[in-house]
Fold these 2 entries.
Entry 1:
Amino acid sequence: MKFFIDNNLSPHLARALNELCAGQHSVTHLREKFDHSTDDVTWINTLAKEGNWVIVTQDRLSKGDMEKEAIRRSGLTVFILAKQWTQIKSWEKAQKLVHWWPKIIEQSEMVEAGAAFEIPCKPATHKARFKTRKL
């Protein structure tokens, strides 16, 4: 499985997740594959052509219909951090995302491509669930 971390999350976090997944999955930050100023529709369409990518973003996908439509058409699975994630500091964000990561992998492997989920800001427990997100 290939995971793609959007520009609104730290490249350091993406590298850490990639190391934790070594040998099983890959985690790539936007800046490792594209110029940092690449517009969302361009990188979404590129990933869609390559296939088998899962996007993890903090973007609320509220910039406009073009971005949402590109995600819908892409057939890519996307995980969106809930709004509350924007209120926490980088170390806590890293801790929570690492804690959620096994559930993100598991969910990605179970669903048909093109699904969208919101990752709650609460701790990942055995009862914690993703909220299905409509784009």
Entry 2:
Amino acid sequence: MTSQSTHTDLTYQDGDLAAYTDSLILTQESRKEDWDTLAFQEKAGPQFRRAQIRYVGSGATGNHEGDTRTIPSQGFTFSNMRLPAGGEGPEHTHHDVEEAFFVLEGEIEVGVHRDGQVVKRVLGYRDMIVVPAGVPRSLKNIGESDALFCVIIGAQKPQIPTYPETSVMHGIGRD
């Protein structure tokens, strides 16, 4: 297998099946931890610092369509998230799409929010939660080292999430 670092816009009809197949592969070595995409959340505190590692599409974190290291989304987005020990993902809501978290390393405490209540569950290695559209969610790394987890969002280009009044991010903008 090749260690591809850029995605080309080849199609299956281009005739070179090997080049086409290589254009569909994204290796760990070609990924970049993007600590800047969600840096605006640090306005609410340093515990909200985390890195997105994009593979398919740009997720709901902003406009990354020009990132040639990713495969353009056809119907979902896929990234990894690195969350330092004690780090948090603030309460937020995706109104248009479900979101799944699949833990690869560490322990993540996920919260599902409704009507002022929060139910928390701990996810570890190879555990997963799928949160439906419109349901507020949050997460926290409760381990002593970085956590790494997959984030799958079920749309080609999801809307930017909102932060309910109960979120520390409510009223904090991206700029």
